[in-house]
Specification:
Cyclophilin, 25% helix, globular
Length: 171
């Protein structure tokens, strides 16, 4: 009886523990400024390895932008990797609207035909991260959205049109 009760409780709790905290529409909402300040010393997820943080960070040339992340298998796998160590890769301009580079690992995909906007971060071909400073329609897996003040700020951050950059992803 006790074993059955324990099993039933675990069966109910495990999906919640490994979920994205019941986030509506699969998008993790912005944290308040107070929460962001409290989380600066840690990795933003209060040390609980079973929950998803609301954001990851992208750093280019010593400047960092937060990325509000989606809740999907790709972001769960990316966050798991980032809990181990930050990921740095090289990205280059493509098509005059994006920076793309090999992640160095494959992530699960849930590609859908989407039209991206400036600031979108997507997974392409399971192993490439694309950072948009323009728009494109293709089949991608959404990772998240960079938080920036203006398009000029975003283009400057990504060094749009200037060639190769080093990109670091972290929690």
């Amino acid at each position: 009886m006790l074993r059955t009760l324990t099993f039933n409780i675990l069966a109910l709790l495990l999906p919640v523990l490994f979920s994205c905290e019941g986030v509506p529409d699969a998008v993790v909402p912005d944290h308040s400024q107070e929460e962001q300040n409290e989380n600066k010393e840690g990795n933003g997820d209060n040390g609980n390895e079973n929950t998803m943080p609301g954001q990851i960070k992208i750093t280019v040339s010593g400047k960092t932008l937060p990325v509000n992340i989606e809740c999907n298998d790709a972001t769960k796998a990316l966050v798991a990797a980032l809990r181990e160590a930050s990921i740095t890769y090289e990205a280059d301009d493509y098509g005059g609207f994006e920076k793309v580079g090999p992640l160095g690992r494959s992530l699960p995909t849930s590609d859908t035909q989407i039209t991206t906007q400036a600031g979108d971060v997507v997974l392409y071909s399971s192993n490439q991260i694309v950072l948009f400073y323009g728009s494109n329609t293709w089949s991608y897996t959404r990772i998240g959205k960079m938080q920036y003040e203006s398009l000029d700020e975003l283009k400057s951050f990504l060094k749009a049109g200037e060639g190769n950059i080093s990109v670091s992803l972290s929690l």
